Amino acid sequence: MPKRKNTFSSWRRRLAQRAVHTGWSWVQRAGSVTAENPGRLRFGSIGEATRLAFPLGTVFGEPWIHLGSHCIIAEQVTLTAGLMPDLDLGPDPILRIGDGVVLGRGSHVIADTTVTIGRDCYFGPYVYVTSTNHSYDDPHQPIGRQWPRMEPVEIGPGCWIGTGAVILPGARIGRNVVVAAGAVVRGTVPDHAVVAGAPARVVRRWTADEGWQPPLRTPAPVPIPAGTTSEQLRALAELDEDGVARLAELEPEPGS
């Protein structure tokens, strides 16, 4: 005979699950870091509406870390200034993050010397940015014991950095650049470029004279018309192919 389901045990499990999820949501809200509720962290500056999600990654050297306004720092993001905690790094900030920056879950920004991230940059998860690289000049010493090399890193405004990308010391990335997922970037990247590969190279670029070269393969997204309500958007999302075709037939002819 089939075993009878223990309804009471199932009910208790659902109740416990709901309690755990509710409790964890409360912990996430209470543990997040903002300018109003910085906890133990004392950043050099942290702007309005910026939030570091809980649980945090490794964070140290925060007096030399300046965060802009309206930034979203996801869970388990590491932000460090200096080689180790409790160093005096001088009067100037080491890590600057501009307004409106989004750092995806599990990303690392390691600023042993200056790292600057421009406003409105978006990072996918697990991006690694570092101003320090290991040295291996002496073949008789373990690499981890050799003094590292440091070079400043600069990421211009408006960039999109894909999942798992690595930005190496000395990188200079222009404005509105796309760094493909998994790319390894070193050196200078011009404005309005798309780079991919390891090492990364320019695979597409926009200029005022030629536009995008090679040309884009997909049409540009159509902006949502001004005045469109959330109810209208939900109704459009529920349309099937036949409904979209019928709606297209209702569009007025040009010049009518």
From TrEMBL:
SUPFAM superfamilies, alphabetized: Trimeric LpxA-like enzymes
Q: Which Pfam families match?
A: Hexapep
List the Gene3D superfamilies hit by this protein, alphabetically. Hexapeptide repeat proteins (2.160.10.10)
| UniProt keyword terms in alphabetical order | Repeat, Transferase
Cross-referenced InterPro entries, in alphabetical order? Answer: Hexapep, Hexapep_transf_CS, Hexapeptide_acetyltransf, Trimer_LpxA-like_sf
Residues spanning the membrane? none
Gene Ontology MF terms: O-acyltransferase activity
One of the record's GO cellular component terms: cytosol
PANTHER family from the UniProt entry: ACETYLTRANSFERASE C18B11.09C-RELATED, SIALIC ACID SYNTHASE-RELATED
Give the UniProt family note. Answer: Belongs to the transferase hexapeptide repeat family.
Kindly provide the name given to this protein in its UniProt entry: Sugar acetyltransferase
**Protein species of origin:** Streptomyces lucensis JCM 4490
